[in-house]
Amino acid sequence: MKNSKIIVLTTIFMLFLSSMIFSTIALNEKTLIQSIVEGKDFTNITPYPISLSEGLEIYPFFITYSNDIVWLLSGLYQTNWSDLERGVYLSDSLPYVTGFMGGYDAHTLKVVSGAYFFNPYLTEEEFLRQKDTSFDRNSDRYRSKTGYSEPSKALFIHRVELILFEKLRLSLNELKLVGGKYPDLADANPFGIFHNTLGEGYSNSMLGVDFSLIPVKGWQLYGQLAVDDFLVPETESGAEDYKPTALAWGVGTRFVKKYNNLYISPKFEYYKIYTWMYNQWLPYLKYTAKYNSHEIPIGFDYGNDMKGFLVGLDIFDNKVKYKFIIERYLKGEIDLETPYDDDRKKEKENWSGPYGNTIPFFSISFSFEIEI
Asked: For a designed S-S bond to 151, which of 97, 120, 295, 345 qualifies (C-beta 3.0 to 4.6 A apart)?
């Protein structure tokens, strides 16, 4: 490789037009950070209603409805389902999503579902790949005349979340990517967590697990695991060249101090993204989304085949939010453009990655947001 390292320097300025109505909905991590100071955990999902009240509310790009325990949200918005700066199964790597969210909130128990619809555009080469039925031996259309190729790509996510003793949060998540077929009610079923998708050539499921612990006021420990696939040698012998184990996880810790109305929160996070994570044979079943013809991972911002750490600092008050991040990773040879039938996939000793000759990846970024 010609380059021995990758260095990224980023400065981002964001100006938001908002009003007091936004105080009823958590749009970013500010509400979670504020709750850490109080020693009480809050969900890591955004947007999420801070308080539930009866009625319909209209925001610039979405609408919400809620009563005492149930809420619904629909429109165009940015979403995040992680405590981590770089979530590993559904993060704010995506500039926005279009779709629906909703849930049941009984304080210590939350049930949340989301449905997001992505740009289904495929290049001619991608379309031919999508129709090809010779790759996925588990598909119900394996070696049939044509594969699932209707112009549709949607993600359904369901979560069950528990908060214990106000300090420990645990959540179990199921993600189901449906592509090449227009989704139906069975695909969107919020009560079908871990429903059997064996043999469906139009879906790709993932498991997500989160935890957060606030041992004392102002200190949080947190982590997230995503399981795209896990090979069990005892029962799936011979499948090593077909479906490699693909995991992604991150752990972190943050401290939060409050000075008058100013919150200061330094944090440290470590990530491990397996070599074949997020990848798949078919374009519609790859865990990416297209924005202006640019393909963005739905999970970890930088894709797969990486490991490394992040040091960050969040500072905010009632009007301004600052974020400063330093990151350093090792990037392997495999990326999301690597064909999923690549011969290197057979090397199970290298599934955890990073694979082959690694490249140091270093990034410094600074951003601030002003609410008017």
From this structure: 120
**In this predicted model, what pLDDT tens digit does every residue of 14-27 receive, in sequence order?**
444 333 333 478 88
Query: Are the beta carbons of 181 and 150 closer than 8 angstroms?
Result: yes
Query: Residue 367 pairs with which residues in a beta bridge?
Result: 12, 323
Give the CB-side neighbour count of residue 234, counting CA atoms within 13 A. Answer: 0
How does strand 6-16 pair with strand 359-371?
parallel
Contacts of 253 (CB under 8 A, 6+ apart): 219, 220, 221, 222, 267, 268
Query: Is the confidence at residue 199, as pLDDT, over 70?
Result: no
- Quote the pTM value: 0.89
Burial of 142 (0-12, 13-18, 19+ CB in 10 A): middle
**Do 144 and 136 contact (CB within 8 A), yes or no?**
no
DSSP-based three-state secondary structure for 35:
helix
Q: Which of 352, 222, 363 is nearest to 302 (CA)?
A: 363
Q: Which of 270, 306, 286 is nearest to 120 (CA)?
A: 286
Range 299-314 burial, b when 16+ CB lie within 10 A, else e: bbbbbbbbbbebebeb
